[in-house]
Amino acid sequence: MDKSTLLEWYRMMVLIRRFEERCDELYQLEGKIKGFLHLYIGQEAVAVGTIMARQEGDHVITAYRDHAHALACGIDAKYVMAELMGKATGASGGRGGSMHIADKDKLFWGGYGIVGGQIPLGVGFALAEKYRKSDNASLTYFGEGATNIGYFHEAANMAKVWGLPVLFVTENNKYGMGTVIDKASAVDSITKKAAGYEIPARQVDGQDILAVYEATSAELAEIRAGNGPRLLEMMTYRYEGHSIGDRTKYRTREELDEWRGTNDPIANLQRHLLENFDVSESDLKAIQDDVQQEVDAAVEFANESPDPALDSLYDHIYPEGGGA
Ligand SMILES: Cc1ncc(C[n+]2csc(CCOP(=O)(O)OP(=O)(O)O)c2C)c(N)n1
Ligand SMILES: [Mg+2]
User: Fold this and answer.
1) Which domains does the chain have, with CATH numbers?
2) The whole model's pTM is what?
3) Residue owning the nearest CA to atom 23 of ligand 1
């Protein structure tokens, strides 16, 4: 992988982290973001490493922990921030908020609040692409907790029966909404669930963006060749609570410190860049400063944007000319 590509990935991961750190402040200290807010901090290499491996026509759909996917799909940070603040200029017109960021033109379909509900939709995109005879795929993301839900099993079954071009990306951060995987799942690895449908699957170090990218590229090549669905179980960790306000009493401080201190995805890539390329600390600092400006500008844009107009309250609820 060449230096400029790696620096681009580095910039995107730092952007996601700074963006979300700022979101945390805007929620907890300034009260400008309201409702739910699920942060992805710690998991950045998964969204960035997978989305950087997609081709132009590939679809992306995920759950409510969706800011990283939105940014990595190329939605401008200012539209994501405006959405989080419920402004009319937001990616979803200020109506979706944190869990429902989407951009049809970028084939980023959201942001989905019902656990597992996006999985059959992701398989539906794959069905559409197979029907069109394209070589596009659907990258369908979900947490390990979502694989305990019926949606996952029904969707995995049909994807295999119909040989659909879907890459299931499980973001295994070990916890659901406070429940550790061994208390909710009958098996300790999601690859075993995929085996039940004869979907080839493997675990990947989700803190190593190079491993994430390589695994995704390899599986997408299989999928594009018409070899049916694949599943990647990305082993990762979220540093913050499930959502804002979760005091994470279900895990130890030591466990968090271990992941954050020794296996941080941004630090891992930073080390790789410094050790193997002609990159200096000050080059990385310049990227961090540039990202900070981008985040500040996004907040300013969102702050100055108007709320959705009152008379638009009932827009997009019923079809034009429809009604009860
Ligand atoms: C159908 C449904 N059941 C329960 C919930 C409440 N809930 C929200 S997130 C969550 C845990 C999901 O965990 P996981 O799939 O591992 O994703 P993560 O939050 O770790 O990214 C639960 C139970 C919900 N939103 N929808
Ligand atoms: Mg989880």
Assistant:
1) 33-265 (3.40.50.970)
2) 0.97
3) 177
